[in-house]
Design a protein that fits this description.
Length: 279
């Protein structure tokens, strides 16, 4: 998705050029570097249904392969001929933010006082800024003004937040026949998602005790009972409201980009697909 957004951001202002292809490849290599290292930190045995690199080839190979992917990313970016200094500055800033977001995510596992605001900041850094960066780099390489490129960045950032909130929602309330994965995986692992944090925030004292008890529980009804509390505390509706809020911001940002509406249609269609998906 990230390299596609880079190319679409480029095509919004001009015909696709060679610089955009190099940038898109660099962005995808960087993203895969983060996945390899995230899997190591999460001790994940599987990624997209396949054995993770560090599980298959060992921890040392996993770390080094991730490192090399990041080097290859910069090798691709170094081939960009237009506005290279500006592109590298944006990419470096984004890379640091993605690492900060991953650290926050890891820190949250050890904390019981994470706020909704902190969670939104974390997913913004870990997920959204790379989507935003991809669009902005493509736009800059297509000749966009700084104003238009910044509006496209905000579109990507808000789209990314809404996308991650929708991911949280589908993990809890999705249809297993459509998502293809077990519903409630985040609940079973006691992961702090928007739904969990909002439920605790809204809960009565009795409901809060129930939520804490369920987190410590391994009973068969853990998922079912937690989902009931998400509904009873209005966390489910709050999550849907926030998805709608950030979606509205994203589409307003896209509307503000000063190009013909018909040139934005493909981006708008992709955004609708991502935000209205059921899997």
């Amino acid at each position: 998705m990230r390299p596609v957004l880079c190319l679409m951001g480029n095509e919004l202002f001009n015909t696709l050029n060679e610089d955009a292809w190099h940038a898109a490849v660099g962005i995808e290599l960087f993203h895969n570097f983060t996945l390899v290292h995230d899997d190591i930190m999460d001790k994940a045995p599987l990624r997209r249904g396949k054995t993770t690199l560090h599980e298959r080839n060992g921890l040392t190979a996993g770390i080094l392969c991730g490192d090399v992917l990041s080097i290859y990313a910069y090798d691709q970016l170094s081939k960009v001929k237009t506005r290279l200094s500006e592109i590298l500055s944006l990419f470096n800033k984004t890379s640091i933010e993605v690492c900060e977001g991953q650290q926050l995510d890891m820190d949250f596992e050890q904390r019981d006082d994470v706020t909704i605001e902190e969670y939104i900041k974390m997913i913004t850094l870990k997920t959204s800024v790379l989507l935003a960066c991809s669009l902005k780099i493509g736009a800059l390489l297509g000749g966009a003004t700084d104003g238009n490129a910044n509006k496209l960045y905000e579109f990507g950032k808000n789209l990314g937040i809404a996308f991650q909130l929708k991911d949280d929602y589908l993990d809890a309330f999705g249809d297993v026949t459509k998502t293809g994965k077990q519903i409630g995986g985040d609940i079973l692992s006691n992961k702090k998602t928007y739904l969990t944090l909002q439920a605790f925030k809204n809960a009565s004292e009795d409901q809060r005790h129930q939520l804490f008890a369920l987190q410590r529980s391994s009973e068969n009804n853990k998922i079912k009972n937690t989902l009931q509390l998400y509904e009873a505390t209005t966390a489910k509706q709050n999550c849907l409201d926030q998805i709608a809020y950030y979606s509205h911001l994203a589409f307003a940002n896209l509307e503000d980009v000063a190009v013909l509406d018909k040139r934005k249609e493909h981006l708008r269609t992709l955004a609708i697909y991502l935000l209205e998906r059921d899997k």
